Amino acid sequence: MSVLTEAKIDAHCHVLEPSRFPYREDTSYRPAGQEMGSAKYFQEVMACYQVQHALLVGPNSGYGLDNRCLLDAIASAPHVFKGIAVVPNDISLEALQQLKAQGVIGVAFNPSLMGFDFYADIEPLLQRLRQLDMWAQFQVENDLLLDFLPMLSRVDVKMMVDHCGRPNLNAGVSQPGFEALLALGREGRAVVKISGFAKFSQAGYPFTDTRVFIDALVRAFGLKQCVWASDWPYLKAPYRLDYGPMLRAYEPMFNAEERHQLMWLSAKHHFGF
Description:
By secondary structure, the chain is an alpha/beta fold. It has one domain: TIM Barrel, CATH 3.20.20. The protein is 36% helix and 15% strand. It has helices spanning 39-48, 60-63, 68-76, 93-101, 111-114, 123-131, 145-154, 176-186, 211-221, 243-248, 256-271; strands at 8-13, 51-57, 81-85, 104-109, 135-138, 158-161, 190-194, 226-228. The protein has an 8-stranded parallel beta sheet. The chain starts with 7 loop residues before the first strand and ends with a helix. The mean pLDDT is 97.
C-alpha cells in the first residue's frame, strides 16, 4: 500500500473560516488565501487521502482565544474531529470542563510565538489539565523547552510537543533543548508530533536535512509515543506545500508497519478516536 491510501489520523491541523467566524480585531496575523480552510472543505481533503479522524488545533493566528470556529467544526462532525483549544492562562476548571464536554481534549501553548514569559504563570493551569486528564500541548523552538522543565517536573500532566520540537538544525541533535526533548521521550513523559518539517528544515522539500532529528526522536520516544500530523493548511508556510507531497515525504522514513503505528494506532490510543 501507499502512504496515500493507508488509514490515517491527522494529529495537528487547523480550520479557519473568517466568512462565518471573523478574526479577532487584536490578532497579529490574519491568514488569507490558501492559508484558510473550512471544516467542510478539510473533510474533502481528508477523504482524498484516507484520513479518518483529525485533531484540530486552535490557531493563534486569526482567532487567538476565540474557539468558536474550532468548536463549530467539532460539533459538525464529532465522530471525525476532536480539538486542542487556546485559552486564557487563568481559565477556570469549570470552563475547561465545558470545553472538554464539547470535544476539546487539551490546551495549546505556543512559546515559539509568545515566548516563555507569557506562560510563566501556567503551573496552576497545568494542574487543572492534569485533574481533568487533558493534554498540555507545547510548540517550542530552539531551547525554549528548557524554561518549562521545572514546572513540568512538578506537574505530571499529559504532555505533547509539536513539530519535532522545532530544533535549530545548525546546532545538531546535541543542542540542549532537543536533548531535553529526547530525555522526555526516554522517560515516557511525553508524546511528540513527527511533523512541521518546513518550520525547521533549511533544505526544503523533501526535508532530508531533518532526518537525523526524526530518527533521534523515534529512537528516544518509540513509535507508540509519536504521532503524525499534516499541519494543514500550512499557516505562514515559507513556500508552497500540499497534502499529498507532504505525505510522500514519510515513505522513505517509515515502512508500512511503522506508518500504521505512527499514523493510526498511536493517535487512536492517545486521543481516544
